[in-house]
Design brief:
The complex is a heterotrimer of chains A (252), B (301) and C (451). By secondary structure, chain A is mainly alpha-helical. In chain A, 76% of the residues lie in helices and 0% in strands. Chain A is globular, with a radius of gyration of 22 Å. Chain C has 19 helices and 14 strands. The longest helix of chain C is centred in the middle third of the chain and has 16 residues. The chains are: A mainly alpha (252), B mainly alpha (301), C alpha/beta (451). At the A-C interface, helix 2, helix 6, helix 7, helix 10 and helix 11 of A face helix 1, helix 3, helix 12 and helix 13 of C.
């Protein structure tokens, strides 16, 4: 990490010549190049919008579905769970053709809302899969007791079970956020126009250009721009994440 | 005051439909439906460059059964899964226990454990390519310092070391996530159970084996299934670090599929590889669920 | 999610418009279908141009489009590009919504497109007048270069600039040590000893992409030993061609250099950027590469570094032409489903008109397919290439990599094994021959033939 930060301040030819040395001068032009020439500033905003937009819808509906599958087994619920697991088992490019067509028909092709919808769909497997595990480990007696206290199914979920599953929710949200922040393949296909580009697309453009123009400096500056906000957010939240886990630990 | 059994069941059906519905509709529409459509491609001879294609039934799959490269790639995936997976699970468990400690080093570990996960795989690949670089990489340097210079090979270009080198990079990337899962799993073990175990005189390894490990059954299942799928879908890391080389020593299913799809313009055949990949993932997942399908603690009084 | 998103950079692009139920129709034959593009009168309307954004960028073409629009007010041209433009183009081709003119770069199999009847043949257009001229468009091209875009006498793709294939050295470093670029293989061997004595690696190469070594060393040596026919035999998939004595000897020469330690340690695992960086930093004295090397490495070259081209050293007593020069082109094409193919061709005529071509040569320091585009004073680096190009009595290209990608992959893998010391030159030839046989026997692969 630190090494990457150092690299981002060096001119291209020195990076590969002697990657472990410290730069003599800070080459900020690597950053200005990345920020302006590669439109990373604009892409940055799009990435934030898309990531947050996805999580806001994804987390509740994912948790709801996971809860039902984990705690309300019915005929066919295992089949549904299996199908949802299946969603994690194929390489992405397999569905690109039909997905492209579908988005086109829904008039969501090359729109940010379309991308968000697809992100929600393709994040559901992971979300449901992990939360399913968490809901299953929660003690059954608790839900039954709450029902006896007069709670209905809805309030048991929102007031009892969901708070108890907070450690799981946080882990899942964090990992979804990271995955979405770095997502490239779907964005590449579904939002081709520059105006809708997300950060990974900008970086990929920079990286491929580097292949033909050997501009390592700008590439590393770009990588730092992508990674730094994630690290900062994580660093700020790291104790909170762990504390929440401790606090949310099930007391039986 | 006391609700009857039927009271508990009241509104259950509506509740299920209401809560499962939104996720299921989105999932079926945007994931499963396109997937079913996509499977069709494996039945065609199709370049993927135009709409010209020929229906050839299961011919692609017959060819696949006799394709040495396909089987070799699958072996590499399985080697990464079994050997890499064992290492990853072991280190993640240790890390998860360390995370639960109190003190400075645990806090530091909490800070850094997810760093690799924060980076995209592209960055991970670039980083490890620099580390394994024969001219200035750390690995080469380490061997030279230890006067084992003769042993220092170009790791990524030397067939016996290339796959382990990719595996190391992969493990480095993956461990944080599983450590987090195990860590969260440890938190869900009720204190009473831990205390009861301690009262029984269990400590250290004994406690882990008798109490912690069985109690983690659900997390274990998540980890193993997730790991299986992750390893079978490994692509970016291999593609960037070795492109499947040297001489296919690190070829995995998806790098081979990529070659077929985009270098050889055989998208139909490539889809057949993807379908095979999917089937293998399904079978392995099923096996994991079969082995760790039941809550071992439930049987206890 | 993580696992799928782990697939990012799964450079998919394979999204296409293949309807369910309306499964892809038609069948493929190994004979391409010809759609002749008739040249018409005044160009008009919108033209979309999609370009591969490589070392030369796309700025030149965007400026050219502006100039063209000033001269042709009825036409609106948009030029855009991407380093991975083929990913965007593949699905658009399948969906039947391609641009009007495209230069898709190395990521798209244009011969497959020709086979599937997706490209216009341009022979009628070539007979029509060149841009702003009375002479035929065809006569403005160097015939041997134009021929590289033909199949069965039909023009499917057009050349633009020319890549010169061969070897590179740093004249500054060579002058300092009193070395001269080797003209023959024995000279190369002797020079390698001197270079090693100076503490520099004699040769480096793009080991992760073995075709650099195949195209810039092995194929020229096969030509030098066995003559151009030996290279044509390889490309024509002639039975036994890869096991011919000329090929065995050329591959043995690589093996000899390798065993003598003349290649930089670790080069077998290097990407093109890594090895080329070693070269421009003076850690290795010579490197095989095409003439894009300079533009590709410009930003990485340390101050004071230079580079110059030399022909791959010849083998004394060989049947080949010592002046022979290997070139390659990067093709431009017009899809049959283009909405405005006539205007697209007119714009491409403009791009290949002499003044524009001359400007491209000067600005990008590369040779071009257009006759006379190299007139006038050239930059020194280009001048030396141009001199060799003009002196050359044999100009040829190794196109088999584009024609038969699957065979090429097998051969590249075999070369890596040879360089790792796992197989002998004879085993390399046997593996390459087996790969050629597989391609030869596959009726679904369209075959090409060189005379």
């Amino acid at each position: 990490m630190i090494w990457m930060l150092i690299l981002s301040f060096k001119p291209g030819y020195k990076i590969v010549a002697n990657p472990w040395s410290l730069p003599h001068h800070l080459h900020f032009e690597n950053y200005t190049n990345a920020w302006t020439t590669a439109h990373l500033g604009h892409d940055f905003g799009n990435s934030i919008l898309v990531t947050i937009g996805t999580l806001i819808v994804l987390m509740p509906i994912g948790a709801m579905a996971a809860y039902v599958l984990a705690r309300y087994p019915f005929k066919g619920s295992q089949l549904i769970f299996g199908t949802i697991l299946g969603g994690m088992m194929f390489p992405f490019f397999l569905v690109m053709v039909p997905l492209f067509m579908l988005m086109n028909q829904l008039h969501l092709y090359d729109t940010k809302s379309g991308l968000i919808l697809v992100y929600i769909a393709y994040s559901l497997s992971f979300t449901i899969f992990v939360l399913y595990g968490f809901f299953q480990t929660l003690p059954h007696e608790l839900a039954e007791a709450s029902m006896l206290d007069g709670c209905n199914h809805h309030s048991v979920f929102w007031k009892v079970m969901l708070p108890l599953a907070r450690p799981g929710m946080i882990v899942v949200a964090v990992f979804n956020a990271i995955g979405l922040w770095n997502e490239y393949a779907l964005a590449l296909v579904l939002v081709p126009s520059q105006a809708n580009h997300t950060l990974p697309l900008g970086i990929a453009d920079l990286a491929s250009t580097q292949q033909y123009q050997s501009d390592w400096g700008a590439l590393f500056a770009g990588l730092v721009i992508v990674i730094l906000p994630v690290l900062i957010v994580y660093w700020i939240l790291r104790d909170r994440i762990h504390d929440t886990m401790l606090a949310g630990a099930v007391k039986g | 005051m006391a609700a009857s059994k039927s009271g508990i069941n009241k509104g259950k059906g509506t509740f299920i439909v209401l809560y499962l519905g939104p996720a299921l509709i989105i999932y079926l529409g945007l994931v499963i439906w396109p997937l079913i459509q996509a499977f069709q491609f494996s039945l065609y001879r199709w370049s993927g460059l135009s709409n010209v294609a020929t229906f050839i039934g299961l011919h692609n799959f017959q060819k696949l059964a006799h394709d040495d490269v396909f089987w070799r790639s699958l072996e590499h995936n399985l080697a990464l899964l079994v050997i890499g997976g064992a290492v990853i699970v072991a280190i993640s468990l240790v890390a998860a226990h360390l995370l639960a400690e109190k003190g400075r080093s645990a806090r530091l570990l909490r800070g850094v454990i997810l760093f690799p996960q924060m980076m995209s795989l592209t960055v991970v690949a670039i980083l490890w390519m620099f580390i394994f670089n024969p001219q200035f990489g750390i690995v080469t340097g380490l061997f030279n310092v230890l006067h084992l210079g003769n042993l220092s090979k170009t790791w990524l270009a030397y067939p016996p070391t290339a796959l382990p080198a990719v595996g190391i990079a992969f493990a480095w990337f993956a461990i944080g996530f599983y450590a987090m899962l195990f860590s969260a799993g440890l938190k869900t073990i009720p204190d009473e159970v831990k205390e009861a175990a301690e009262l029984d005189g269990a400590a250290g390894w004994q406690k882990f084996r008798k109490v912690t490990w069985p109690m983690l059954w659900s997390i274990k299942r998540i980890v193993l299934v997730h790991l299986t799928i992750l390893v079978l879908n490994i692509f970016v890391l291999v593609y960037l670090m070795t492109a499947g080389g040297p001489d296919r020593a690190t070829e995995v299913l998806l790098t081979y599929m990529y070659q077929r799809a985009f270098q050889d313009s055989q998208l139909g055949y490539a889809t057949a590889i993807a379908v095979a990949n999917f089937v293998v993932a399904m079978v392995l997942t099923f096996l994991v669920l079969l082995v760790i399908g039941k809550d071992p603690t439930e049987a206890r009084p | 999610m993580k696992n799928q998103f782990g697939l990012q950079a799964m450079i998919l692009a394979s999204f296409t418009a293949l309807a369910v139920g309306c499964a892809p129709g038609g069948t493929t034959s190994s004979k391409p279908t010809a759609h002749e593009l008739a040249a018409t009168g005044k160009p008009t309307g919108k033209v979309e141009v999609k370009l591969f954004k490589g070392g030369y960028g796309i700025g030149f073409f965007q400026r050219a489009a502006q100039d063209y629009m000033k001269q042709n007010p009825g036409v609106t041209i948009t030029v855009s590009g991407d380093p991975k433009v083929w990913e965007e183009l593949r699905p658009r081709m399948v969906a039947g919504d391609p641009p009007d003119l495209m230069y898709p770069g190395w990521g798209m199999d244009h011969w497959k497109l020709a086979q599937e009847g997706q490209l216009y043949t341009l022979d009628k257009a070539l007979e029509s007048p060149a841009y702003g001229s009375k002479e035929s468009w065809r006569s403005t091209f160097i015939p041997s270069v134009l021929a590289l875009g033909q199949k069965d006498g039909k023009q499917y793709v057009m050349p633009y600039f020319i890549n010169i294939q061969g070897m590179w050295y740093d004249p500054g470093v060579f002058a300092k040590h009193g070395w001269t670029p080797p003209k023959t293989f024995p000279e190369l061997l002797a020079l390698c000893q001197k270079i090693k004595a100076a503490g520099i690696a004699p040769l480096t190469f793009q080991g992760k992409y073995p075709y650099y070594m195949i195209e810039n060393m092995i194929i020229p040596w096969v030509q030098s030993i066995g003559g151009i026919q030996a290279v044509n035999d390889l490309q024509n998939l002639k039975p036994g061609a890869w096991q011919a004595p000329a090929v065995l000897q050329a591959v043995s020469m690589i093996d000899q250099l390798n065993k003598a330690g003349d290649f930089e340690k670790g080069a077998v695992g290097m990407t093109h950027t890594e090895s080329q960086t070693e070269f421009v930093n003076g850690k290795a004295a010579m490197i095989p590469c095409g003439s894009w090397l300079h533009s590709e490495m410009a930003k990485t070259m340390p101050p004071g570094a230079q580079m110059a081209y030399f022909l791959p050293p010849v083998v004394p007593g060989g049947k080949g032409d010592p002046t022979a020069m290997e070139i390659s082109i990067e093709p431009w094409m017009v899809p049959v489903k283009a909405k405005n193919p006539e205007a697209a061709i007119d714009f491409f005529k403009y791009l290949t008109s002499l003044p524009v071509a001359q400007k491209f040569v000067q600005e990008k320091e590369t040779l071009m397919s257009v006759v006379g585009s190299d007139s006038g004073p050239l930059p020194p680096l280009l001048q030396s290439q141009d001199d060799l190009f003009k002196q050359s009595k044999t100009v040829y290209s190794y196109i088999a990599r584009q024609w038969y990608p699957q065979m090429e992959t097998s051969i590249e893998n075999a070369l890596t094994s040879l360089l790792n010391g796992d197989i002998t030159p004879q085993q390399f030839c046997d593996r390459a021959e087996a790969a050629a046989k597989k391609t030869r026997d596959d009726p679904n692969i369209m075959k090409h033939h060189l005379n």
